[in-house]
Write a structure and sequence with these properties.
7 helices; single chain
Length: 240
């Protein structure tokens, strides 16, 4: 009985291994087929407009990745920072609080430092410094985002331009052949549709990154505003 069970177990493992191997081969073939299909469609769409749209995709992705890395590095645990600054103000005064801000990365710590730097001139001066430098930090957070929105708008426009040019080519073919058969116009219409699809795909990809970046910026700005209010409250408490 044990021998039968062992034989069935081995056969089962061999069967599962054969299924997994077959699935892996099919996945590899599908991936290779997709790459070949994508390459073929890109060539059929024409290197002119398809190449320009591809450049828009590459530049847009470069900006998006740079912004995502910058924003992730700019994200700060504001509650911990406020608590550390409060403790530093209580134990060592403004200089100790400034040292805490110097050792903390992110725009919130930079805003805190500017407010603490002007705190000796009064709460009004500190508040003005926080508001002014907050605008500077917001500009740094939004840097190059307008270029990303430009590429989002530009990609489908280039695709539609390729569509118009493809349709013009199709009508030229009709005029030359003096025939309106599908074989005459198919080439131009195919180019038109491919450029449109590629432009829309690029715009969709970049739009997803753009929305994520905007939501990340909004989150950081909200934290900056809340933390700035907390800093003014801490300075008011420290001045008493």
């Amino acid at each position: 009985m044990k021998k039968v069970v062992n034989v069935l177990t081995i056969a089962g493992f061999m069967f599962l291994g054969a299924i997994q191997s077959t699935q892996a081969q099919e996945a590899a073939q599908a991936s290779k087929g997709f790459r070949q299909e994508l390459k073929q469609r890109f060539i059929e769409g024409g290197p002119g407009f398809m190449g320009i749209v591809l450049v828009a995709l590459i530049l847009g992705l470069a900006i998006a990745i740079e912004r995502i890395i910058y924003l992730n590095m700019a994200t700060t645990n504001t509650k911990k920072l406020v608590a550390d600054v409060d403790e530093a103000l209580s134990s060592g005064g403004v200089e100790a609080a400034k040292e805490v801000c110097r050792n903390t990365k992110g725009p919130v710590a930079s805003i805190f430092y500017q407010g603490l730097e002007r705190s000796e001139e009064g709460l009004d001066a500190a508040e003005k410094a926080v508001v002014g430098y907050g605008g500077v930090q917001m500009g740094l957070l939004e840097k190059n985002v307008s270029w990303l929105s430009l590429f989002i708008a530009l990609a489908p426009m280039l695709g539609f331009m390729g569509t118009v040019i493809g349709m013009i080519g199709a009508f030229d073919s009709i005029a030359v052949a003096n025939d309106i058969s599908p074989a005459v116009v198919a080439g131009g219409i195919k180019v038109a549709l491919l450029t449109t699809v590629f432009g829309l795909v690029v715009a969709i990809i970049l739009q997803i990154f753009y929305n994520y970046i905007i939501s990340k910026i909004d989150s950081i700005v909200n934290n900056m505003e809340d933390a700035s209010i907390s800093l003014i409250d801490l300075l008011a408490k420290y001045k008493k």
